[in-house]
Amino acid sequence: MSKPVKAAVFGTGSWGTAFGTVLADAGCEVTLWARRAQLADTVNSTRSNPDYLPGVELPENLRATADPAEAARDADFTVLAIPSQTLRDNLAAWRPLLAPGTVLVSLMKGVELGTTMRMSEVIEDVAEVGRDRIAVVTGPNLAKEIASRRPAAAVVACTDESVAQRLQAACHTPYFRPYTNTDVVGCELGGAVKNVIGLAVGIADGMGLGDNAKGSLITRGLAETTRLGLAMGADPLTFSGLAGLGDLVATCSSPLSRNHTFGTNLGKGMTLQETIAVTRQTAEGVKSCESVLDLARRHGVDMPITETVVGIVHEGKPPMVALKELMSRSAKPERR
User: Fold this and answer.
1) Annotated binding-site members for sn-glycerol 3-phosphate
2) With contact defined as beta carbons under 8 Å apart, do 79 and 108 qualify?
3) Which domain holds residue 295?
4) Measured between alpha carbons, how far is 126 from 81 in angstroms, rounded to an integer?
5) Which residues line the annotated binding site?
6) How many Å apart are CA 74 and CA 278, to the nearest integer?
7) What is the pTM of this model?
8) Per-residue pLDDT tens digits of the chain, which is 336 residues long
9) Looking at residue 301, which CATH number applies to its domain?
């Protein structure tokens, strides 16, 4: 009888806990690393994570610890589920603890400020492992729905398809259906840029601009993402799949989306600091919009919606002024 797959999940936020639940439901032995020992104790004693997923019962084969060495020990898969801008420093501390041959799995959807590196690139740089040992899980994956075992699909991406297939088998459950992809660049860009477009759609919803505006922003946002992807060597078909359109629609449509909710509050007139104060969890697009725009400029790609979001979020531009500037751009063919 073969031994069960072991998985370590670094991060006990909503998505880390939800994906840990998926892995456990698929038959893996899962250890969550929690930054706070009190939360780890609560997970173990109550089979729940009341801070991030209240009311969700966690599987018996999922346990938590505040000791990173204990979490990482003998893990076949080491899942990273922390805010993207904290990855570099945290992973540098965890690197000596990683199990030999473990596959590093990114759940993070962001672009690093300053370096404009995708998360898999940061992992490769810090952990000094080959790309065939780095995988990405992405798609329309709202954590609360998945933790509640509601149906969802996702993309498991790795440059080595056999590694992607191993991870696919490790997280395939009756309610969570993963598909493999070898286009890591496209999958990561889809996940990172959709957060920025989610902010834009949220702002529009907060301003009461209607569904035509929402549909337009989603479509033109996907065009921006695809342009950037093509410039960086991604497969354009990725952006019409789960990692592109699927994730974008879920983020821009659901009140469960942190980025959409953050944008809605801005659109209603709250200041950036007021919005941050009422937001309990990280809205990745708030910081990543700057690095995405920087990445676009380095590749000579025009991303007007992203530029508008940066203007509102980081430059204090009133949403109505930003909207008028966006709508007054010169007319051009759709496919350009």
Assistant:
1) 109, 139, 194, 247, 257-259
2) no
3) 192-327
4) 16
5) 14-15, 35-36, 52, 109, 139, 143, 194, 247, 257-259, 284
6) 39
7) 0.94
8) 578 899 999 999 999 999 999 999 999 999 999 999 999 999 999 999 999 999 999 999 999 999 999 999 999 999 999 999 999 999 999 999 999 999 999 999 999 999 999 999 999 999 999 999 999 999 999 999 999 999 999 999 999 999 999 999 999 999 999 999 999 999 999 999 999 999 999 999 999 999 999 999 999 999 999 999 999 999 999 999 999 999 999 999 998 899 999 999 999 999 888 898 888 777 888 999 999 999 999 999 999 999 999 999 999 999 999 988 888 888 888 876
9) 1.10.1040.10
Burial class of residue 140 in the structure, from the number of CB atoms within 10 Å of its CB (0-12 exposed, 13-18 middle, 19+ buried): buried
Gap between the Cα atoms of 291 and 3, Å rounded: 42
In the annotation, is 194 catalytic? Answer: yes
Query: Is 335 among the domain residues?
Result: no
Annotated binding site for NADPH: 14-15, 35-36, 52, 109, 143, 258, 284
Distance between CA atoms of residues 99 and 97, nearest Å:
6
Q: What count of other Cβ atoms lies within 10 Å of the Cβ of residue 324?
A: 10
- DSSP string computed for 249-281: HHHHH-TT-HHHHHHHHHHTT--HHHHHHH--S
Unique residue bearing structure tokens 């032995």: 29
Query: 148, 182, 216: which is the final residue of a domain?
Result: 182
Angle (CA) 284-288-291 rounded to 5° is 170
Which of 140, 158, 182 is where one domain is finished? 182
| Catalytic pick among 3, 6, 144, 194 | 194
Q: How far is CA 189 from CA 68, 227, 231, 321, in A?
A: 29, 11, 11, 28
